[in-house]
């Protein structure tokens, strides 16, 4: 489908100064990894890398005259070689200042993914004068379509071809966009309604270029809010790297770290479980051994009962002889006491049992236990019945 060049240059619509809208416009241009955000506080330093600033202000008659009459105190760069090597385009298409401001930032930054359309535009306009670059922008259908797709629904085309500013939504007031970009160590102001770019000089050593911009824009706002004008209607936006990419990268790193931590915890739990099992097994073995040892010690310390004495201990045989050569033999089962104590008890029993006038002769000899379990009864029967004998 053929493109009507005249319709392109006359059909650009007004855009709102909204950072979200500008970000969408960048995406439609084919730019990746860039977004636009609004600046609310100029008193504190700006954090993070910034590609450039876009400043919106109300256009008044005193400033319109600067397009024709160049004041002496403005630091214009008139060297054609410098100007042509900078992407600085004069605005020849009405209502296109928003796109001009964006392109002035994007095409002067070397580390931005421009996409097919802007890369082709930058290559084809390399070395052109500012006016021809302005016509190249107006004659690029992809830029015009992307620009108009984000226009306000109630926006109307302006018929005044000599005015390149945007009109206010309700009052008919005109607003204009300009760009501030660092180029070759110096701060440049790129305004498509001025014949040349303005050089605001280098920034100080060991400081960011944004600090130089803060000083310049603060001075400019002081002039704009003087007693005569009392105009504080302006908007400041920054072109910065896409925060979503950084946040997505951070989220990916957090997920990776979380997975690593979970795997490490699982390994620790597994090792702890194994150590606990081994410890319980060792404790069980130690407990069993301790229990066996304790039982063995108790068995050694506890005196045996009578049945054990009857079965295990050997009782000495006591032979009692009288002068008439009669003898009495007795077998006794000792209790679980020491042999010395058993003999002492036995002698005591014998001495108490045989209390006769006739002296006795006692002879002891080892003998096997009898079937009787009552030792005292046997001993008592032997000594209480001395008349019984062989």
UniProtKB/TrEMBL annotation:
GO MF terms, alphabetically ordered: cysteine-type deubiquitinase activity
Keyword Hydrolase found: yes
Site feature Transition state stabilizer, where: 91
Site keyed Important for enzyme activity: positions: 191
UniProt keyword list: Chromatin regulator, Hydrolase, Nucleus, Protease, Thiol protease, Ubl conjugation pathway
Disordered as annotated region, ranges: 273-346, 362-390
CDD domains: Peptidase_C12_UCH37_BAP1
GO biological process: chromatin organization; protein deubiquitination; ubiquitin-dependent protein catabolic process
Domain UCH catalytic, residue spans: 11-241
Compartment(s) where it occurs, according to its Swiss-Prot or TrEMBL record: Nucleus
Bilayer-crossing regions: none
EC number(s) stated in the UniProt entry for this protein: 3.4.19.12
Catalytic activity: Thiol-dependent hydrolysis of ester, thioester, amide, peptide and isopeptide bonds formed by the C-terminal Gly of ubiquitin (a 76-residue protein attached to proteins as an intracellular targeting signal)
UniProt-annotated catalytic positions: 97, 176
Polar residues: compositionally biased ranges: 312-342
Chain segments annotated as coiled-coil in the UniProt record: none
Function: Catalytic component of the polycomb repressive deubiquitinase (PR-DUB) complex, a complex that specifically mediates deubiquitination of histone H2A monoubiquitinated at 'Lys-119' (H2AK118ub1). Mediates bisymmetric organization of the PR-DUB complex and is involved in association with nucleosomes to mediate deubiquitination. Does not deubiquitinate monoubiquitinated histone H2B. Required to maintain the transcriptionally repressive state of homeotic genes throughout development. The PR-DUB complex has weak or no activity toward 'Lys-48'- and 'Lys-63'-linked polyubiquitin chains.
Subunit structure: Catalytic component of the polycomb repressive deubiquitinase (PR-DUB) complex, at least composed of caly/calypso, Asx and sba (MBD5/6 homolog). The PR-DUB complex associates with nucleosomes to mediate deubiquitination of histone H2AK118ub1 substrates; the association requires the positively charged C-terminal tail of caly, probably due to direct binding of DNA. Interacts (via ULD domain) with Asx (via DEUBAD domain); the interaction produces a stable heterodimer with a composite binding site for ubiquitin.
Name of the protein in question: Ubiquitin carboxyl-terminal hydrolase
Native source organism of the sequence: Apis cerana cerana
Highest classification ranks of the organism: Eukaryota, Metazoa, Ecdysozoa, Arthropoda, Hexapoda
